[in-house]
Design a protein that fits this description.
Blueprint (H helix, E strand, L loop, with lengths): L57 H8 L25 E2 L18 E5 L3 H7 L17 H9 L3 H12 L10 H34 L2 E6 L2 E6 L8 E5 L7 E7 L5 E5 L1 H4 L4 E5 L2 H4 L9 E5 L10 E5 L2 E5 L4 E2 L4 E3 L3 E8 L5 H4 L10 H34 L13 E2 L6 E2 L4 H16 L7 H18 L14 E2 L11 E6 L6 E12 L2 E3 L12 E3 L2 E5 L7 H9 L3 H15 L4 E6 L5 E7 L3 H12 L2 E6 L3 E6 L2 E11 L7 E7 L5 E7 L1 H4 L9 H16 L3 E10 L1 H15 L5 H12 L4 E12 L3 H10 L3 E5 L4 H10 L8 E5 L4 H21 L4 E6 H7 L5 H10 L2 E5 L3 H12 L5 E6 L5 H6 L2 E5 L6 H4 L3 E3 L5 H39 L11 H11 L1 H10 L5 H6 L5 H4 L6 H26 L6 H23 L5 H22 L9 H6 L2 H28 L3 H11 L19 H13 L3
Parallel strand pairs: 1-27, 18-32, 18-36, 22-24, 32-35, 33-34, 34-35, 36-37, 37-38
Antiparallel strand pairs: 2-9, 3-4, 3-5, 5-14, 6-12, 6-14, 7-8, 7-13, 9-10, 10-11, 15-16, 17-38, 19-20, 19-31, 21-22, 23-24, 25-26, 26-27, 27-28, 28-29, 29-30, 30-31
């Protein structure tokens, strides 16, 4: 029995008699194939992954959180043109990962009712929000209370507020009340100014957006109307390239079939075109006469779903995601659309999704709380000591209290004796404790918080400006979206990476094909350049050139027989089984235009370009038909039905009405799903050969698809059409019925062949992964691709090596998974104990189903952490997040997740640090990330350079702030011990306030932004130096104790050296207070100077300028006659004793710090110190002595040579 005429070749070519046919002559249908009129369809969600694996996108997370969990598309099918045969009706069963949805109807209680073209009636019962948007946080009235409320979420601020309030109590008045509250007020004011400026910018942006205009039907005419004045129920007209002002249900378009093309880049970042459709019932009615009722779900965040129905001219029709266009979308390739506003303003889906990434706290800040608690305990201890000693002093001097000037227990001015400022010994002891807390409150540095914000801002600026993280091709800079975790970049131990679009470019290139059992991999350059078509006088040429196989070209052009026929059907399937939209682009030659194929999937684009390169060129698409140039002859094919890809079937199919009046079903999908639906009675040799080719393609790292087809009889088509019409008009269970219909059609297929598409590695990925591994960072790849493809890519990017022992877990049940994990645990223990060889764990998503959130998690954790590499294949988005949580919840190691697509969002948000790649799959990952960049290789300078710098700078700044404030507090404490525990302040109140704000704040901020312990080249050439942050060498409890002991010693020197020098003189507390203050400021700044590694003019200006500023402020304050201590500094500076005391304080105070630093660096040098000396003395061999400034070696020659060799061994 002969098959129908081949579709791609003008001559009639028959099949050999031994070819089993899947069709009969009954597939020839009478009459011309109609050009269908679209009645309804459903939208296609972006699927930019290969069809070869299951995907679950972030939309599912949104669906789970929104009210309507599963949403249906519209489904009334396609109404036939009245002039055509009713048999041919184009229908669609589009679905992707649960988009169909809803198994229920809308109840009146949970629905909103919109009267079309009647906003007054719509708002009669319920007042919907207007279309004005507001992204600002504050108004003029609410700014002060709300901003203060938000700032006081920091517990430390409440602590300082309470202390400031206590200072207003007369009995506790250590400082002047206004001065006591000034530090907190300053911090609050600076933060408020920053917040006000940011909100002012938001207000300005909102005003610009709300003042835009659209064309709205008013009094029977379309008139301009500001966006903010649009109401629910208004009919709006939007023209080509305009942006939608609100969420609209589509009523009509300039296309007679009701199709519209939209770009959702402002919504989800995807630049590919998507299709939306108007219902047939609304297409033929002029907008001025349009009436009806839309009953839709309440506003929700689900941008991929919409549940509604409408009553138009007495007929109830269902509405779905394909019938609504959301605010922010742009109309493309469509002259105009008309729609009715259903959600406005803050109810629109884009506004409901207008929230940033979840807030994260850095590990240093969390550890800082530990030290803050320690300082609080120390503060309480000091205050308790003062209180106890004060109580003892009061009891010892009980008889003298009546005449002691400070206490003045009794007042004798009047004849009658009465108490005067005396509250009994118990009261005075309590007041002493509370006053001590106020006096020593600076022990917990309030300025540290604002200093950290400023430092992070400065660090972010330099990261953004780093030219080594700038992508020239896309003009993309590094983005710092979260300012509060910069330092975490220096402590990463695990990197969890997506593959497609993250390690690879996600720019698909067609490489080879298996056509009916024959492998065609002999591609050559430039063949496709000669492929052209002529349309309306213009020569059309594909924009992208594809390498082609000359043998396959010859087979398609001149071949005969079964293989040639199947080859032509194969490429017709590639050209038709898709949702690609051809776009004509002008060139420098006015007679030549380029065809650019725009679609939602890079895979589809690559396949259509490949078909064009072999002579089957898609040149036009409308909602009902496509025009394909077949070897120079343009043919029109009617698209009668489309079953879009979904993660259950892992296939997509299209029903095509051909020029010879036959009907064909073309199907493409993953091999795992396609090979199970083939006709088993056909040639099995072709199937076996194709499977072999698929295995070879996967081993090369190619993404594979299997192509099949089936000829449909008129009875089969009519049965399908009838079933689809019933299912698509069902209001309950529609999604399940449509899925069943799609699966029923895609059976008994003829295998046409398979494709191999290459997703090339990004530039520098192998080198980047090698650097990360040398830095002690474990790289895990979590991908949805099949195992063979992922392993091949693993070898290509140097993640896997031939020397690694691979532990593979592919389980199909819980019991087999448990056994596999037990064997893996035993094997990993044995290899670690016996040989210490490198190990790689490879596990698939099906096995993870039985592992994650079960008792087997612990076994997986044991195996995974013993392995050097973990490769997870065919994993869903939530499984990616589960793998990250596996490490994050069981260890203290810092995790980083990096990805580029919506299916990476859950992983990015789960990790301690999330990085989005601004690639080909939209900006969902970027919008959910903490940092964003264009290429994976930028991860190396980000972590090894900026991460290292940020960590060591911030760690030192925090410890230094604790130290400098402790020095100040200890000096006050020693003074209290010599003033009968009266808590008088030796230092002028103004100077006390300015100490943390002016005298010592600027140097530490500048050093924390600019200092570099090692150069970029050293850090990049020696990745092992990154381990300093992983081991927390720069911030730990030992260093904290060391800083506190240093502050204790220096406070003793600062206090007692001047005290002993002046105790037998007539110098009062004002003079000594100035000397103590200058000693503190000079010593803590010089202490900082000793630790600075790289000096520049800004650092010099900050440190020496702060000392000079302190001196000037002391002189100015002592020159004001109204303040205590008038002229004291002038008297002090006039004597030699003052200058010798300052010199002695500096020398004696710095000796322990300097000696300890030199001793540790000489006897126990760290890797950082050795690398710094190698860098400083430019001694690449390490074989000679590296002289210190005083002529001695800072480290022994052997140590330098040994560690330098270790650093060199792992270099590529």
């Amino acid at each position: 029995m002969r098959s129908p005429e081949p579709l791609l070749s003008p001559p009639r070519l028959g099949l050999p008699p031994d070819e089993p046919s899947t069709s009969t002559s009954s597939t020839k249908l009478p009459g011309p194939v109609p050009s269908p009129i679209l009645k309804s369809s459903s939208s296609r969600r972006a699927h930019s992954r290969s069809y070869s694996h299951e995907t679950v996108t972030f939309a599912e997370i949104l669906r789970q959180s929104s009210k309507p969990i599963d949403l249906e598309p519209n489904g009334n099918g396609f109404a036939p043109n009245s002039t055509q045969l009713p048999n041919y009706i184009r229908s669609s069963t589009r679905r992707n990962s649960g988009r169909f949805g809803s198994q229920r109807d809308l109840s009146d209680d949970e629905a909103r009712f919109i009267y079309i073209n009647d906003p007054a009636r719509t708002h009669n019962s319920v007042k919907f929000v207007n279309n004005a948007i507001s992204t600002s946080k504050y108004t003029v009235i609410t700014f002060l209370p709300r901003n203060l409320y938000e700032q006081f979420h920091r517990v430390a601020y409440i602590y300082f507020l309470i202390l400031g309030a206590l200072n207003f109590v007369p009995q506790l008045g250590v400082f002047t009340p206004a001065l006591g509250i000034l530090p907190l007020a300053f911090v609050l004011f600076v933060t408020a100014v920053k917040d006000a400026y940011e909100d002012f910018r938001r207000h300005r942006s909102d005003n610009t957006e709300n003042s835009r205009t659209s064309t709205v039907l008013t009094d029977g005419e379309f008139q301009p109307k500001m966006w903010k004045d649009i109401q629910v129920g208004d009919i709006i007209k939007v023209t080509n390239n305009e942006t939608l002002p609100c969420d609209m249900v589509l009523l009509a378009t300039s296309d007679p079939t009701g199709v519209a093309y939209v770009q959702t880049i402002n919504l989800d970042g995807e630049s590919n075109l998507k299709t939306r459709y108007a219902k047939q019932e609304t297409l033929s009615t002029p907008p001025e006469q349009m009436t009806g009722l839309v009953k839709c779900e309440q506003p929700n965040r689900n941008i991929y779903g919409f549940l509604a129905n409408a009553e138009i001219t007495g007929k109830k029709v269902s509405l779905g995601p394909s019938n609504i266009i959301l605010r922010g979308c742009e109309i493309k390739n469509t002259n105009w659309i008309v729609g009715v506003a259903v959600y406005t303003g803050s109810d629109t889906k884009v506004m409901l999704n207008n929230s940033g990434a979840p807030s994260k706290r850095s590990r240093l800040e969390s550890h800082m709380n530990r030290e803050t608690i320690s300082l609080s305990v120390l503060l309480g201890l000091i205050c308790t000591i003062v209180m106890v000693l004060a109580g003892i002093w009061l009891f010892v001097h009980d008889e003298e209290l009546g005449i002691t000037p400070f206490y003045r227990k009794y007042e004798y001015e009047n004849e009658k004796q009465k108490n005067y400022n005396w509250y009994g010994k118990g009261g005075m002891i309590v007041f002493t404790f509370m006053s001590a807390v106020i006096l020593f409150q600076i022990m917990i540095p309030i300025s540290l918080y604002i200093s950290m914000e400023l430092v992070r801002l400065g660090q972010a600026f330099f990261m953004i400006q780093d030219k080594q993280m700038y992508h020239e091709a896309t003009k993309s800079k590094f983005q710092c979206r979260a300012l509060n975790i910069n330092e975490d970049l220096g402590q990463i131990r695990y990197v969890f990476s997506d593959k497609t679009g993250t390690l690879t470019e996600n720019k698909m290139e067609f490489q080879c094909a298996s056509v009916y059992g024959s492998d065609f991999s002999g591609a050559s350059d430039g063949t496709s350049e000669n492929i052209t078509s002529v349309k309306a006088g213009f020569v059309l040429r594909p924009k992208t050139i594809v390498k082609t196989d000359p043998k396959l070209h010859e087979l398609l052009r001149n071949g005969t027989g079964r293989e040639a026929n199947r080859a032509r059907d194969f490429f017709l399937a590639l050209a038709t089984c898709n949702t690609i939209v051809p776009i004509e682009m002008e060139t420098s030659d006015p007679n030549v235009r380029l065809l650019e194929y725009q679609g939602e999937s890079p895979d589809e684009q690559a396949l259509v370009y490949a078909a064009a390169a072999y002579g089957v060129m898609l040149i036009e698409r409308t909602s009902g038909h496509i025009i394909v140039d077949v070897f120079g002859q343009q043919q029109s094919y009617n698209v009668l039905g489309l079953h879009e890809f979904d993660s259950d079937r892992k296939r997509m199919s299209v029903i095509i009405g051909c020029p010879d009046k036959s009907v064909k079903l073309f199907v493409k999908g993953a091999d795992s799903s396609m090979l199970t639906v083939l006709d088993k009675t056909l040639n099995q040799d072709v199937t076996h050969l194709t499977e072999t080719h698929l295995q070879n393609y996967s081993n090369l790292g190619l993404r594979t698809l299997v192509i099949g087809m089936r000829d449909l009889t008129s009875e089969e088509f009519e049965e399908w059409q009838s079933a689809y019409e019933r299912a698509s008009t069902a209001l309950l269970g529609r999604g399940t019925q449509l899925r069943a219909i799609a699966s029923k059609m895609e059976t008994d297929l003829v295998l046409l062949g398979a494709t191999g598409i290459e997703d090339k590695l990004q530039h520098g990925v192998p080198e980047a992964i090698e650097k990360l591994r040398q830095a002690g960072i474990k790289v895990w790849v979590l991908t949805g691709d099949k195992q063979e493809t992922a392993i091949s890519i693993g070898f290509s990017c140097r993640l896997l090596t031939r020397e690694m022992n691979q532990i593979v877990i592919n389980a199909n049940s819980r019991d087999s998974c448990r056994k596999s994990l037990a064997d893996a645990v035993a094997l990993s223990e044995k290899m670690m104990r016996n040989s210490g060889e490198q190990q790689a764990l490879i596990i698939d998503g099906n096995s993870l189903v039985y592992v994650l959130e079960t008792e087997l998690e612990e076994e997986l954790f044991k195996v995974a952490t013993r392995c050097d590499v973990v490769l997870c294949c065919r994993v869903a988005p939530l499984q990616k997040a589960g793998i990250v949580a596996l490490i994050k919840n069981r260890t203290d190691d810092m995790t980083l997740a990096i990805g580029d697509g919506a299916n990476d969002v859950s992983m990015i948000q789960m990790a301690d640090v999330g990085i989005g790649i601004s690639g080909q799959e939209g900006r969902q990952a970027v919008m959910a990330s903490d940092f964003a960049m264009a290429q994976f290789r930028f991860l190396v300078p980000l972590l090894l350079v900026h991460g290292h710098w940020n960590y060591q700078r911030m760690a030192y700044m925090i410890l230094y702030n604790f130290y400098r404030n402790a020095v100040y507090v200890f000096v006050l404490f020693w003074y209290v011990l010599y003033t009968a525990f009266t808590l008088t302040n030796a230092i002028n109140e103004w100077s006390a306030v300015l100490y943390s704000v002016v005298y010592t704040a600027v140097p530490t901020i500048v050093v924390a932004i600019l200092d570099k312990d090692l150069s970029r080249s050293t850090l990049m050439n020696h990745p092992q130096l990154y381990g300093s942050g992983q081991r927390e060498e720069k911030y730990n409890i030992k260093l904290f104790i060391g800083f506190m002991l240093d502050s204790l010693w220096q406070s003793l020197v600062i206090f007692f050296l001047p005290y002993l020098a002046y105790r037998h003189t007539d110098v009062d507390w004002s003079g000594l207070g100035d000397l103590w203050l200058l000693g503190i400021v000079i010593l803590v700044n010089l202490n900082l100077a000793v630790d600075v590694v790289r000096w520049n003019w800004v650092t010099h200006a900050a440190i020496w300028g702060s000392i000079a500023a302190t001196w000037i402020c002391v002189i100015v304050i002592d020159s004001i006659w109204m303040l205590p201590g008038f002229w004291a500094i002038y008297h002090m500076m006039a004597t030699w004793r003052f200058w010798f005391c300052l010199l002695g304080v500096v020398i004696v105070g710095l000796i322990p710090h300097f000696v300890g630093k030199a001793f540790l660096e000489y006897t126990m040098p760290s890797d950082i110190q050795i690398a710094r000396e190698i860098e400083k003395f430019n001694n690449p061999t390490g074989t000679t002595s590296m002289p210190h400034a005083h002529g001695v070696s800072a480290t022994t020659d052997g140590e330098v040579q040994m560690i330098h060799q270790q650093l060199q061994q792992s270099q590529p």
